[in-house]
UniProtKB/TrEMBL annotation:
Protein name: EAL domain-containing protein
Superkingdom as given in the UniProt entry: Bacteria
Taxonomic lineage: Bacteria, Bacillati, Actinomycetota, Actinomycetes, Pseudonocardiales
One Pfam family cited in the UniProt record for this chain: GAF_3
Database matches in SUPFAM superfamilies: EAL domain-like (SSF141868), GAF domain-like (SSF55781), Nucleotide cyclase (SSF55073)
Domain EAL: 604-857
Sequence segments annotated as region (Disordered): 1-23
Keyword Zinc: no
């Protein structure tokens, strides 16, 4: 409940209509104010009795006209006021001093007192604001009795030197000071006291305005009685002043209305702004955020009460906020859904509806009585597509006639602005939600996770970022479609959300999730990770089949073991990603980040960024391993193998940098470089009279590139090399990765005459049906079978089967990994076509390979010469 103090009585001169500090008046202070009001009334009656006895009553027949005129004058002075808002404090400028001065000059004390009481209390009752009638009656008596007493004493003291109007002027000036003093005292009793300096400034301004009003009244009086037809001149001036006042008052009203519209819109627009909320786009806004809006509407319309009924969430609960005096029946505060029969809340259209107790039907009067109101303005708050709530305004207190057209227009405009501002706030909340949340799962996205995690770290809290990657998602999407893959992601996210019990959860990428664990140790984070992996591993029913998934997890803490706290959530995300990659090679699938992991991935990053420079600067070399025909042992070709001599890391194993190069898309540059070196070497051998082939390895990206056959054809034509001298080796897995795209590429290469070989045969999808559909010319037996052939009968059987299978399909068979004579002899016995391995030679640089060829050729010549000599003998 919001309650603020209203003016405590008729206004004289310049007075505060409400205290600058909003306060809730407790029952004790209300009781104190009751005693203060009784004391004020007693003082007013006592001073009035004394003044009546001290001042003789002078009867005049003109009193029959003067009395009613004074009543009218006091009523007009009470109604023709100027309200000014200065720094959120309302001030009222009135003209009560003018009829008071005229009464001092023309009428006895009793007549003026009666006129003031009749006008003041009548206005209060007319405003339906008679809750402080005792206090007001006391002040009204003092405002007349003290000026008459002061005027009498001044006239008596200065009758010889001062004009007759001097005493009444001095007496009149005491009236606003009395009113101001008692108003400040009442505020003090009610708990809204002003500082001494502020009170002094208020008294000075009140005296200045009172002096101005008194001067105007005195001048008008002198002109009216001292000038022929002076009363007409005064009347004309009064009409002009009233017209000027009305114009100025309307201008001030428009200015205050614009300020109110701006304040209401800004108050609503600024409410609800904060950090991303994992619960959803529409979050509950506290009533405190709407209190300034309700108070501003109450202040602007000068109403006793404003009731806001707002539905902050679509389809959600309606809140009721009351600013001002409490409603008589608390049940009326219930949501509109429970008040369907309330006639005030039937809101067709979007216009303001006005209800008055005197002219309303019985059901409306009953509803007004429940609210404790005589008059009500009700307007719905309609958004773009829904009813957002309603505004009720009860009983205007500043004018006895109630709400006017200007009030209705203002309330309609306020309601339109309020509804628009609420719609805008909802739109802003939706935009903020979409910016920080994943549209598929409703979880936080990477941006929202970074914002929330960064906020917690800035508060000094210890955080653990746990990253979980869901496996088999790609397989599900390719087999069943991406819709089912998305359903699997949603299901996994829902399982983790339920298991985490409110901890922030985000979906970073397609199958990657992140959890923010606050104030957790690394041991606790490890337990949470294991639990989440168990939840994810439970079967997923998808389209009448059940899919089982696995997950790997890695986590990083903001409080590492060395005591140096980490305050960057991006770094924690990066470290947890490194830990996930390490977890893929671990046994339990969960790893904690260690600084050594970062060095490994930093090295991989350096290899990727330096690879192109390594090709251009000659760090990348092509080595050649010879291939020898069986059983004659003639060198028929070589396999081109890439080597990298890194200036910092030294000799790098191909298994270290080739997967990184393939993953980053640089394998095309590597293949082009090796192919160019191989063709240059073949051309060199042809020019020297040697016809040998070179085998170049292909990656899955080469087989998916439709333009790759054209580039191979251009290279063969440029070096004038027969296509059968170029062998392109491919793995079974690379072909099966995307058969629809790789098979057309292979057919085009085969049609060109390029020899195609299946590398590492026997380790992948090997089958007779598979080979029959591939346009290949030879198969290469994986070295793992050849190496175990001498000790493992099963490996020997596999090799024999592959040789027989290849020959049955008219394919040449190449055996890799030949390292001893026994293996070579066994292969010869099986009928294998070509051997390759350390028994013959390791991969050699170009110069050493040329030297090996030269030595091999010399040995063969010497061997043939020795045979000839033996035959001659």
């Amino acid at each position: 409940m919001i309650e603020r103090h209203r003016s405590l009585g008729p206004h004289s001169g310049l007075e505060p209509t409400r205290p600058p500090v909003r306060a809730e008046v407790d029952p004790d202070r209300r009781r104190m104010f009751t005693f203060f009001s009784l004391a004020t009334l007693a003082a007013g009656v006592l001073v009035s009795v004394i003044a009546s006895n001290a001042l003789p009553f002078r009867y005049d027949s003109n009193l029959l006209f003067i009395g009613p005129l004074l009543v009218i004058g006091f009523l007009l002075a009470e109604q023709l006021t100027i309200d000014v808002d200065v720094k959120r404090v309302g001030w009222t400028i009135s003209f009560t001093e003018i009829p008071l001065l005229l009464g001092l000059l023309t009428a006895p004390f009793e007549v003026v007192l009666a006129a003031n009481l009749l006008a003041g209390l009548g206005a209060q009752i007319g405003r339906r604001a008679a809750t402080h009638v005792v206090y007001n009656a006391g002040v009204l008596c003092l405002e007349i009795a003290v000026p008459f007493a002061v005027a009498g004493m001044v006239n008596q003291a200065f009758h010889a030197v001062a004009p007759d109007w001097f005493g009444p002027v001095i007496g009149t000036l005491t009236s606003p000071l009395i009113s101001c003093g008692f108003a400040l005292a009442a505020l003090t009793v009610l708990g809204g006291a002003m500082k001494v300096a502020a009170g002094a400034r208020l008294a000075a301004r009140t005296l200045a305005v009172g002096l101005l009003n008194t001067s105007v009244g005195l001048i008008g009086y002198e002109v009216a009685i001292g000038t022929p037809w002076g009363w007409l001149l005064v009347a004309l001036v009064a009409v002009a002043v009233v017209g000027l006042y009305r114009a100025y008052s309307d201008l001030m009203r428009e200015q205050r209305d614009l300020e109110a519209l701006s304040d209401v819109s800004l108050s609503v627009a600024r409410s609800g702004q904060g950090t991303p909320d994992p619960a959803g786009p529409e979050h509950v806004v506290s009533l405190a955020e709407w209190e300034p809006v309700a108070e501003r509407i109450q202040e602007q319309l000068n109403a006793t009460r404003v009731v806001l009924r707002l539905r902050l969430d679509p389809g959600g609960e309606v809140i009721t906020l009351v600013a001002g005096e409490p409603m008589l029946d608390p049940a009326v505060r219930a949501a509109p859904s429970a008040l369907r029969d309330d006639p005030l809340l039937q809101l067709p259209g979007s216009h303001v509806r006005s209800f008055r107790s005197l002219e309303a039907p019985e059901e409306v009067r009953r509803a007004l009585r429940q609210r404790g109101a005589y008059e009500a303005l009700v307007v719905p708050l309609r958004g773009a597509s829904t009813l957002l709530g309603a505004v009720e305004v009860h009983d205007r207190v500043s004018r006895w006639r109630g709400f006017g057209r200007a009030d209705v227009r203002l309330l309609h405009t306020l309601a339109s602005h309020l509804a628009t501002a609420m719609d805008n706030r909802r739109l802003l909340a939706r935009l903020r939600h979409d910016a920080y949340h994943d549209p598929l799962t409703g979880l936080l996205n990477r941006t929202g996770f970074r914002e929330m995690g960064g906020e917690e770290l800035r508060r000094g809290r210890t955080a653990v970022v746990l990253r979980i990657d869901l496996d088999v998602l790609t397989t599900v999407s390719e087999a069943l479609g991406y819709t089912w893959g998305d359903r699997m992601v949603v299901a996994a996210g829902q399982r983790m959300r339920e298991a985490l019990d409110g901890a922030p959860l985000a979906r970073l990428e397609a199958n990657s999730f992140a959890v923010l664990l606050l104030d957790h140790t690394e041991e606790q984070a490890h337990e949470v990770a294991q639990h989440l992996r168990e939840m994810i591993a439970k079967p997923y029913p998808l389209d009448r089949i059940v899919v089982e998934a696995t997950a790997v997890a890695g986590y990083a803490s903001s409080a590492p073991a060395d005591g140096e706290a980490e305050t960057d959530v991006d770094t924690l995300l990066q470290h947890s990603d490194v830990a996930v990659r390490a977890a893929r090679n671990g046994e339990d699938g969960v790893r904690c980040y260690a600084p050594a992991m970062g060095q490994v991935f930093l090295r991989r990053f350096q290899l990727v960024t330096q690879f192109r420079h390594a090709i251009d600067s000659g760090q990348i070399e092509v080595h050649y391993q010879p291939k020898v025909a069986l059983p004659g042992r003639q060198v028929v070709g070589a396999e081109a193998l890439v080597r990298w001599w890194h200036p910092e890391y030294g000799r790098l194993d191909p298994d270290e940098f080739i997967p990184v190069v393939e993953a980053t898309g640089l394998v095309d540059a590597l293949t082009a470089f090796v192919l160019e070196c191989a063709l240059i070497k073949i051309r060199d051998w042809l020019d020297r009279g040697m016809r040998m082939s070179v085998a170049v390895n292909l990656s899955v990206r080469n087989l998916a590139d439709e333009s790759f056959p054209d580039r191979v054809a251009d290279a063969l034509q440029r070096h004038d090399i027969p296509p059968e001298l170029l062998t392109l080796e491919l793995t079974e897995s690379s072909v099966m990765a995307d058969r629809e795209r790789s098979l057309p590429v292979l057919r085009r290469l085969h049609t060109m005459g390029v020899v195609l070989a299946v590398d590492d045969f026997g380790t992948g999808y090997s089958s007779l049906a598979y080979l029959r559909h591939l346009p290949v010319d030879e198969v290469k037996i994986d070295k793992s079978f050849v190496l175990g052939m001498g000790t493992d009968l099963s490996d020997l059987a596999v090799v024999r089967t592959i040789v027989e299978l290849g020959h049955s399909l008219d394919l040449a068979v190449v055996a890799e990994g030949v390292e001893d004579d026994i293996s070579r002899d066994q292969l010869v016995g099986m009928g294998c076509d070509v051997a390759q391995g350390y028994l013959l030679s390791r991969p050699l640089p170009e110069e050493r390979f040329e030297a090996w060829l030269e030595a091999r050729t010399k040995r063969e010549i010497d061997a043939r010469s020795e045979t000839v000599l033996t035959l001659l003998h």
